[in-house]
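Subject: Sanity check before I submit

Could someone independently write out the structure tokens for this chain? I want to compare against mine line by line before I put it in a report. The sequence has 137 residues.
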Amino acid sequence: MGSSDRREPEVTIARVCKMLTTRLEEIPTLDELAAAAGMSRFQLSRMFRQVIGVSLRQYVRDLRLKRACQLLAARNVSITEIALQCGFYDSSHFQKAFRSHFGVTPTQFRQDSMPPGRPGHGRSDQQTAYGSRTTAT
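---
Independent answer below. Compare away.
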């Protein structure tokens, strides 16, 4: 097997990842992704896990939650709007997934993400469940 043959799975999965990130609000189906990759659903799922290290489902959830964190920290948009922009079915589904992943609600995350001096600034000098430290000034 030549070096280009060994790189082909990485190239294929990179293409799939790009499709996922560019269509975050409406993630392509597994059938669409498999067709774009030129393989069966099972082959794609197996290759994705081998190359990326997590399942497609986990990868998509992580992409959505990462984007949600960016929106929560950067914009004054409602939790429901963020949920929909990140491809969650509704606010409840989003809040449950967010809390399960980070250990805090989206509202708590938003409050803790605010810079000091802004109204609603969150806990100070505590290690939060999602790994960032805020300190009192």
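---
OP: Matches mine. For the report I'm noting this point. The first helix runs from residue 3 to 22.
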